[in-house]
Amino acid sequence: MLIHLFIRPQLHHPIYRFSTLRLPLRKLMTSTSTTPVNPATLFKSPVRAVWNVRGENVPTLWWPAKGQLTTKTPKGTDQPVHTVLFMIPGNPGLIDYYIPFLQTVHDKCDGKIDIFGASHLGHSAGDHVTDTSRMYTLEEQVESKIAILDRLREQYPTGTRFILAGHSMGSWLALRVLKARPNHGIERLFELFPTIHRIADTPNGRKMQNLFKPSVRSIVGGTVSTLRFIFSAPPVLRSIVGLFTGQESDMAQVTAQQLLHSSVVKNCLFLASQEMEAIKVMDKETIKQHADKFVFYYGKTDEWSPIENYYEMQKEFPQCKSLLCEQGMVHAFVLGHGEAMGLLVGQWIHDM
């Protein structure tokens, strides 16, 4: 049996002060001790929670830290430091697509890092959704991510290192968060296959622009509803998704169970239409001011963020760390390359 429960502060971890969790009742009944419990040992990672952010319910995943990484002091000694990675997805903004990637990052860091990931508003289905007709704007997604960082910062001690990891248009969102909160302890931004400018002029932007029109969004949404009605059994729909997309079982399950809902698909397409209009001019000023914090990672065959963008960043911002993928990863790296990307990001964190 699952219950909605507001976890009280006696679990002694910041996330419980503002989360609503869906947890098996038996897990909450296993201990009657009043001794403070370390949630990293109480729960199997990741912990699923629904956060109320600015009045909106946001599905999240959390990998609790089981210790602390160390950093070098000016005297050359090792000093423990809280490290928090905040993952901002692309579009579709379903955080469950990032589980293999984030689990690998957590493992690579020996569990000594808190990892949080949040889905985009309107990009998930379930009991937490109160209005399936609501379309969320790009600016609302920005404000949601800023509010999440604000809440995280309130709960961790002074000196905590925050890392933002953005994928695709999530890289643009991460850039906006940094611009809004430059003094919030953000030490790194990992911009993975970033779409931070001229997105409508990319090969995929030109090919898919008609898909984002209102009339087409309605047709696609209706088609998805029909498919869910015809293939109502979850295993059948998952199998069909896997057959037609080539996605592995776990990713096909996310697509079938969470993405293929009329309201979710229409929100994804609506957000994409706004991206085409808003993500045009690169915020060079913010990048220049925080150049030492950025790691840009580009693909060789990426049609959302072409290789020309990599060369442009190298020329425009030589002080930034711009890397070109040599492992054959695609733009949607979460579909098949999550572990490989996780090993890279985990190493970048170790190298901080």
TrEMBL record:
GO terms for cellular component: lipid droplet. It holds the Pfam family LIDHydrolase. It is found in: Lipid droplet. It comes from the Eukaryota. Its main location: other. GO terms for molecular function: lipase activity. The keyword Repressor does not apply. GO terms for biological process: lipid storage. Keywords: Hydrolase, Lipid droplet. InterPro entries: AB_hydrolase_fold, LDAH. Belongs to the AB hydrolase superfamily. LDAH family. This is Lipid droplet-associated hydrolase. It comes from Linnemannia schmuckeri. The lineage of its organism: Eukaryota, Fungi, Fungi incertae sedis, Mucoromycota, Mortierellomycotina.
